[in-house]
Every structure is written in structure tokens, then in C-alpha cells.
Specification:
This protein has 12 helices and 18 strands. The chain is α/β, with parallel strands linked by helices. The protein has 3 domains: 260 residues, DD-peptidase/beta-lactamase superfamily (Beta-lactamase), CATH 3.40.710; 128 residues, D-Ala-D-Ala carboxypeptidase C, peptidase S13 (D-tyrosyl-trna(Tyr) Deacylase, Chain: A, 3-Layer(bba) Sandwich); 73 residues, no CATH class. The strands form 4 sheets. Strands 3, 4, 5, 6, 13, 14 and 15 form a 7-stranded mixed sheet that branches. A 5-stranded antiparallel sheet has the order 2-1-18-17-16, with helices on both faces. Helix 4 packs antiparallel against helix 7, helix 5 crosses helix 6 and helix 8 crosses helix 9. It starts with a helix and ends with a helix.
């Protein structure tokens, strides 16, 4: 009676499969108790108005242990990355890596003057940054500058051209992305040529009370214009906060807010307009810092009328080549760090490699074909981007569990599994599930948007039985941390579960 009452007040529908399963075989008291406990967790008064979808299945025998609204479409947020990363892993393989090349097209004379262009040819690599190089943001570009110097070039009568056409996509933002969020790192523009996550790092330091704060950019580029409206204030001031807002379709940034006089420097990131030109511009600045003269401004190849890329041109000489870390490292950034740009680029790269057109439209078409091969119906799934940032993405918890069950048998299963953060230890779940049997046990991909919290992955029970789960929550009005607590409680119950 207690269970029936809870089902009714929550509008929860137990799946027909579970009902028929219950009729065909006796459900153990342990499973009945697990189901009752989960219903109690999500039936608490402060979350009873939320939309829940939960599926838990055994990887040992395929048995469904918990099923709440299993086929209800919900916004996955970054659980969408489960789909895009598995799709990319399957299509590109675990050995895949990006290659970015730098060419010199022209003639070098006896006076070390190069007449022509330096071309950076990108293919969608998101790793040209300091992430893999002890946070030395310009390390890769510095290596390219070394190569230019080794060629004996001391002056360039030409341009630094950024060529992003190795990806061949022109949709620089995902469909349905929030235009008001374009300044922030999680909404960085998508390009075939990327640098420093397509952001500029900033530090704001206090000065004297009442005076403008000091703003430091890394890299120290002139690519963006700064408007400094940040004031240094006394310790008695309230509402102390610094923000950087980039004006839309421009590289002009308003720094606003205030900073306490005794405060440590505040750190953040701001996106750039046209990452391709940004990469070429910073590279040009690095060359000039080494006293290599560059006559013309850095440009995006797409802005040139007569530009043609041709590696076989007799005047085209490759002077540098950068190979990114391979797929396992890329996927860790996507799933442990939940990095949107990495997910978007890898998703589009499948289309660029398989179809020579790295657009979101082609990526979507190829992924739908892949989903059919997995046994999912793409007509019942809504895909708007590769990262899950768009609220138009819709998927059911059963879809997630079906895909996770499928990848468990994939030849590159280990690559995907190890890309998921370990509860209580790393990534987006570093501080979650502490003190439960799920800590150091559950692998979990999280998803966060306003009024959306999702978490899916794998966990072992006390018996060592491996379970696959998806716990999705939308439309809640309580504090998001309360939803996290309930989700963590449910996954903790799975880890504590025993059939004995």
C-alpha cells in the first residue's frame, strides 16, 4: 500500500517490462527493498514536483532492478557526452589523434627575409594549450616559433594565416545555446583551429582603494580590447565580485565589479570571437617577440578571396607538425572534466574524418546511423549538439543504460570506462558520495544545467555484481545540492546492495 501511494502522488510509472517480469518470477525481498528505498528517496516533499527518470540494470544477467519512468525523455545536460564520446570512440578508434601542421608558402632569400605566408592548418584539435604541458599556455606555439627560426627566417613579408578548413564546419556555436553565456569558457566558439580552449585567461589584482584594479591577460595578447570597470574597495564592502563580459561578435571585453584591497588575485576566462584568427594572431605576437618581423596582420583563411590550400605546391614547405594526445586522453577531458569544447570538436571530427564535412548536421546524421546500430531509435531522441549544453537535447534513462550496456562489450571498453570519473576521487564527482560504498567504486558522468541534474555510469554491489545506472532529474525547484544528495544516496544504495 505504501509503495502504491507513493507511485500515485509522484506520477511514477514502473516500466511494463518490470511489471511483466514481476509476474513471471518472484522478485527477491532485497530488490523489493531497494525499489522501496529509491521511491522514498525521490518521494521526499521538497522534490516531489520534480521529473525523475531512473533505470538500474545488472550487467551480469540484464535484470532490471529499478525502473522509474524509464522511457520518459528528459534533458540530459552533459550526460549527452556519454553518447558523443562513445560515438567518437567507436568511429575513430582508441588510437586516434589530431594533427596540426604549419607551412611556409613562399621564398626565403639570402638576407633571411621570407616573402610569402606562414599557414597554420588545423583539423579541430582542442589540445593546443597548456593543459598537457604544465600549464604553459603558449608552449606549442613557442615550439612552432622555434621551427620558424630554425629555417633561418628573420622577417616575414606576408601574413600569418589561420586555416580551420581541416574541419570544414561553419557553425561556431551549438544550436539553442544561450547567447547571454557566450563570454564563458563552457560556451567557447567551435573551430577547426583552436588555442587555449578559445579563451584568454585573466587575473584581476587589487590596487589602492577607489582605484581601478589591475588586469593581466595570459597570453598577454592585444587580440582583445579591455574596458576596465573594476574598482578596488575596502574590506567593509559588500557584493564583491569580478566578471568579464565579451561584447557579442567582437573582441571587446568589459571587466566589471569590485575586488577587496587585501584580496588574492581573482582568476577567470573569457572567450574570443574567431578562434582561428586568435590562434594566428598570438602566433604572430610570439614571432615578433623574438624579433621576427611580420609585415601583415594575422588573418583567417576564410576571409581571403583567393586563398587555396595545396600541400603539393612547390613553394609550400611544412615547417612544423603537432600531434595531439590520443583518444584516451581526449575522452578523459570530456568525461572527467565535462569539457564542452572537446566534446563538440570530437563529435564534429567524426563527420570530418568519415564524410569530409565537419558540420554538426553531418555529425548528427552519422550519429543517428550509429544509434540505430546500437539498437536505439533516434526518432525518439533529440540531439542538438555534442556536449549537452543545449536544452533541446532529450533522451530517456533507458536509452542511456542501453548505450552503456552496449559499450561494456566494445573492444575499446576500457578507454571509455577509464574516462569516467571515480566517485569521491576525481573530476566532477570528486566531492560526491564520500563516506559511502560508492566512493572509489562508482564511475559516474554528471550533467548540470539550470533545473537539470543527471548522473549515469557503473557501480559494483557488495557482492561484486556490476550494475549500470542512470538517475535523471529535471524541473526541480529545490536547491541543486539537494538533488545531488538524493542521487548520491541512490548510487550509495546500489553499492550497498546485496542479493544475499
Amino acid at each position: 500500500m505504501r509503495l502504491m501511494f507513493l507511485w500515485c502522488i509522484l506520477g511514477i510509472v514502473w516500466s511494463p517490462d518490470l511489471k511483466s517480469q514481476s509476474k513471471k518470477q518472484n522478485v527477491s525481498p532485497a530488490i523489493k527493498q531497494l525499489q522501496a528505498d529509491v521511491l522514498d528517496d525521490i518521494g521526499q516533499k521538497f522534490v516531489e514536483n520534480a521529473s525523475w527518470g531512473i533505470v538500474v540494470q545488472s550487467l551480469k544477467n540484464g535484470e532490471t532492478l529499478v525502473s522509474v519512468n524509464p522511457k520518459k525523455n528528459l534533458i540530459p545536460a552533459s550526460n549527452r557526452k556519454i553518447f558523443s564520446s562513445i560515438f567518437a570512440l567507436d568511429q575513430l578508434g582508441a588510437d586516434f589523434a589530431y594533427v596540426t601542421q604549419v607551412f611556409a608558402k613562399g621564398v626565403l632569400d639570402s638576407d633571411s627575409v621570407f616573402t610569402g605566408d606562414i599557414i597554420i592548418r588545423g583539423a579541430g584539435d582542442p589540445t593546443i594549450s597548456g593543459r598537457f604541458y604544465e600549464n604553459k599556455i603558449t608552449k606549442i606555439l613557442e615550439d612552432w616559433a622555434d621551427s620558424v627560426q630554425r629555417k633561418g627566417i628573420k622577417s616575414i613579408r606576408g601574413r600569418i594565416i589561420g586555416d580551420d578548413n581541416g574541419l570544414m564546419g561553419d557553425d561556431v556555436l551549438g544550436d539553442y545555446w544561450e547567447s547571454t553565456e557566450e563570454s564563458y569558457w563552457y560556451s567557447a566558439q567551435i573551430s577547426g583551429l583552436n588555442f587555449n580552449d578559445n579563451c584568454v585567461d585573466w587575473y584581476v589584482k587589487p590596487t589602492r582603494i577607489g582605484e581601478p584594479a589591475k588586469i593581466i591577460l595570459i597570453p598577454p595578447t592585444q587580440y582583445i580590447k579591455i574596458n576596465n570597470f573594476v574598482k578596488t574597495v575596502s574590506s567593509k564592502s559588500e557584493a564583491v565580485k569580478v566578471d568579464a563580459i565579451r561584447r557579442r561578435a567582437a573582441n571587446e571585453v568589459d571587466f566589471i565589479g569590485s575586488i577587496l584591497t587585501e584580496s588574492d588575485p581573482q582568476h577567470g576566462y573569457v572567450t574570443v570571437e574567431n578562434p582561428t584568427r586568435y590562434t594566428a594572431h598570438v602566433f604572430s605576437e610570439i614571432l615578433q617577440s623574438r624579433n621576427i618581423r611580420v609585415d601583415s596582420a594575422a588573418v583567417d583563411a576564410d576571409d581571403l578571396v583567393r586563398y587555396v590550400y595545396n600541400e603539393t605546391d612547390s613553394n609550400m614547405i611544412r615547417i612544423a607538425r603537432y600531434v595531439s594526445p590520443a583518444m584516451p586522453e581526449l575522452m578523459k577531458i570530456i568525461n572527467k572534466n565535462s569539457h564542452n569544447l572537446y566534446a563538440e570538436l570530437l563529435w564534429r571530427t567524426v563527420a570530418a574524418v568519415k564524410d569530409s564535412s565537419g558540420t554538426s548536421k553531418r555529425a548528427l546524421a552519422l550519429e543517428e546511423k550509429f544509434l540505430k546500430s546500437v539498437g536505439l531509435n533516434p526518432d525518439k531522441i533529440s540531439i542538438c549538439d555534442g556536449s549537452g549544453y543545449a536544452r533541446g537535447n532529450l533522451v530517456s534513462p533507458q536509452d542511456i543504460v542501453t548505450l552503456l550496456t552496449w559499450v561494456r562489450k566494445h573492444k575499446n571498453w576500457k578507454t571509455f570506462y577509464e574516462s569516467l570519473p571515480l566517485a569521491g576521487e576525481e573530476g566532477t564527482v570528486k566531492s560526491r558520495m564520500k563516506g559511502t560504498l560508492a566512493e572509489g567504486n562508482a564511475r559516474a558522468k554528471t550533467g548540470y544545467l539550470d533545473n537539470v541534474r543527471t548522473i549515469s555510469g557503473f557501480v559494483k554491489t557488495r557482492d561484486g555484481e556490476e550494475l549500470v545506472y542512470s538517475v535523471m532529474c529535471n524541473n526541480f525547484t529545490t536547491d541543486r545540492l539537494e538533488i545531488d544528495r538524493i542521487q548520491d544516496m541512490i548510487i550509495g544504495r546500489l553499492a550497498f546492495f546485496t542479493r544475499n
